[in-house]
Specification:
Elements (H helix, E strand, L loop, with lengths): L2 H16 L9 E2 L5 E4 L2 E5 L12 H14 L7 H5 L2 H14 L3 E5 L2 H8 L9 E5 L4 H8 L4 E5 L4 H10 L6 E6 L1 E2 L4 E2 L2 H10 L3 E5 L14 H5 L5 E5 L10 E5 L1 H10 L1 H4 L6 H16 L1 H21 L10 E7 L1 H13 L2 E2 L2 E2 L9 E6 L6 H17 L10
Parallel strand pairs: 3-14, 5-6, 5-7, 7-10, 10-11
Antiparallel strand pairs: 1-2, 2-3, 4-12, 8-9, 11-12, 13-16, 15-16
């Protein structure tokens, strides 16, 4: 590295720091859970994607341990060479059945799934119509594809229809949306998206990372929640389904077979390790059988949302367990997160470029392992920090 380039990068980092946009990490000691050990402090965790509380579930830990005992630590190969195990095929079949699809294909992460799904299926003659707030992985995957790109304003069905008309000369059209927009907790209007897709001979692709396992009947995701079918469904094993890693694409068998032949992140990445696959299969056993976990999750979300509203915080409306507390400026979000940590509550501030400038927030997330006492502790901490920082005027969640 040249001294001039080093100075340039250091200047950029200094500017990030000065703007209050520097992201910092805290190391967790022990397992992920509703309460975690951070530097020797027991804190309430309100910012993990551990929706059903399965990240430290003993049955998943046992399944993973037994899989390593019998299947080793890693596959040391990509799938098409010598990296496919019977467990991989079993998990793909199980995911497809669970999601109501013909087939599915595993990736190292959903970022890879979204990065690899478009280029093998769509070319310059085709059109991708994408929601403006779609996840970065969808945006990157679309950029890697040579298809024409159209963008519609978030959940704006009139704008979506206008973009479908603008793409009328394309050979094939596909509407792409998050099932749940992760920064807002807003659920996509899949019923209207599906209607417009039918009217304009378009396909649909939904990223369901923040829904699989807990939205809709048996937790099968936003299409099940909205009562519609979609062409392709991408998702993750790294949130509600155990919180480790791994992603997938599920859909019609010919499309999945084409991804096996052409999807670069699949062809050039190691197969998922045996422990992750075995634990994911066990997670599916649990989520299909445990409506009580989903009920508790949404009860917690309703209680938490009502408590924050009573305190006077500004929330984005919704029903999802993602409940953003809107604070406006990045430094205010940083200050709020820091004070809450001092009070024993672990949250993270979200700010530009993760969200638009002026829309910084604390994204709180519920999970089924949180008790009512946990939530009351969290509300008391939010009340104190919010009052001290001049964000609210009420003193308690009474």
């Amino acid at each position: 590295m040249t001294e001039r380039f080093r100075a340039h990068i250091e200047s950029e980092l200094s500017a990030i720091e000065s703007a209050g946009l520097m992201k910092r990490e805290r190391a967790i000691i022990g397992p992920q859970g509703a309460r975690i050990d951070v530097g020797g402090r027991d804190v309430l965790n309100l910012c993990a994607n551990n929706y059903l509380g399965l990240a430290d579930h003993p049955e998943l830990v046992t399944a993973a341990t037994e899989a390593m005992d019998h299947g080793g630590y890693g596959m040391a190969s990509v799938r098409f060479i010598c990296g496919t195990a019977d467990r991989h095929e079993a998990l793909e079949a199980r995911l497809a059945s669970y999601l109501g699809m013909e087939d599915s294909i595993l990736f190292a992460a959903c970022f890879d799934a979204n990065g690899g799904v478009f280029e093998p299926l769509f070319g310059p003659e085709d059109a991708i119509i994408s929601d403006a707030l779609n996840h970065a992985s969808l945006i990157d995957g679309i950029r890697l594809c040579k298809a024409q790109r159209f963008r519609y304003q978030t959940n704006d069905m009139a704008d979506l229809e206008a973009q479908l008309k603008a793409a009328g000369d394309a050979r094939f059209r596909v509407i792409v949306t998050d099932g749940v927009f992760s920064m807002d907790g807003t659920i996509a209007n899949l019923q209207e998206i599906r209607r417009l897709a039918g009217a304009y001979d378009a396909m649909t692709l939904v990223d369901d990372c923040h829904a699989t396992g807990f939205m809709g009947p048996k937790g099968a995701g936003t299409p099940a929640h909205c009562g519609v079918n979609v062409t392709l469904l991408t998702g993750t094993l790294g949130k509600a389904l155990g919180g480790a890693m791994g992603g997938y694409v599920a859909g019609p068998r010919p499309l999945i077979e084409m991804l096996r032949q052409r999807a670069r992140p699949y062809l050039f990445s190691n197969a998922l390790p045996p422990a992750v696959v075995a634990a994911s299969l066990k997670a599916l056993d649990i989520v299909e059988a445990r409506d009580d976990l989903r009920l508790r999750l949404f009860e917690n979300a309703a209680y938490w949302r009502a408590g924050l509203t009573k305190l006077g915080f500004t929330l984005l409306p919704g029903e999802h367990p993602i409940i953003p507390v809107m604070l406006g400026e990045a430094q205010r979000a940083q200050d709020m997160a820091a004070r809450l940590f001092e009070l024993g509550v672990y949250v993270s501030g979200f700010f530009y470029p993760v969200v638009p400038k002026g829309q910084a927030r604390i994204r709180t997330q519920m999970n089924a392992a949180l008790t009512r006492e946990d939530l009351d502790q969290g509300l008391a901490a939010f009340a104190q920090a919010g009052r001290e920082l001049g964000i609210i005027t009420r003193a308690s969640p009474a």
